[in-house]
Every structure is written in structure tokens, then in C-alpha cells.
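pinned: reference chain
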Amino acid sequence: MSGFRRGVRLGIDVGKARVGVARCDPDGLLAVPVETVPRSEASVARIAALASEYEAFELLVGLPVSLSGGDTASTADARDVAADLAAATGLPVRLVDERLSTVSAHAALRDAGRSQRSSRRIIDQVAAVVLLQQAIDVEKGTGTPAGALLSGSQENP
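pinned: its C-alpha cells
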């Protein structure tokens, strides 16, 4: 586990209507759902408050790219939210490929016997858990943080 940076991280899944937020414990053993934040003028402030409450040292924002790796309509939106979060929190923000996190989240909920309709309120949180857990696993496996540091965002020492 050499190279794993200890501390709480928040995983953020940006959607058009809602933002899913997850967190991990300081040792990165498990990512858990935190909250679904409605998209509004207040969403960045709410996520910043959660980052402060959980004493996160880093934010991981899911970057929705196409299966071929290109930008989608949602990619610019996620980058904008990431930049707003970096400005609001002063924390490093990493953009993490979330190509399959929502698909994985739907599959996990379906396997748990939840219908798509009953899952609507929590799907964003579950997607945030999936992307955060994948990022933790990548860092533990490689010793290198997952994703790309948002330009202008400062890495924690």
C-alpha cells in the first residue's frame, strides 16, 4: 500500500438534476454514500460544507466521457462544477473518468432488488460511491492518485 495518501476524500457524481456525494474513511477502506444534492445555485456551497464537515483533503469529480474517451455534453458541466468546487473549498480537485460508474451503480441497485424508479433518489450517491471506490483502488494498486488534477488546483503535500 505504499504511496497511498491517507485522508478522507469526497467522490462527486455531477448530474443535470442532482449531484451525488460519497466519502471514504481516512484509510480508504470503504466508500459510502453521503447525500444527494439537488442541482441549484446552492449546490456548490452545500458540497463545500460537506467537504468541511468530513474534513476532506481532496475532491474527486466524475468526468463523464464517451466510451471512446471523448468529451460529451456533460463533460463541460462536470469541469465547471469541479472548478467551482476548487474555488469554493481551496481543496485539490481531481477529474476521474466515470465512464461506467452510473452503469455499475444501476447494476448494483438492480442486483439488490431495487427498481429503477425506486433508485432514482440514490443513484447519484451510488455512482459517486462507485467512482470514489475505483479511484481509491487505483491509488492503492499503483501508488498514483487516480484521474487528473484540475488545472489551477493545488496538490496536497
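why pinned: The first strand starts at residue 9 and ends at 14. Strands lie at 9-14, 18-24, 31-38, 58-63, 93-97, 148-149.
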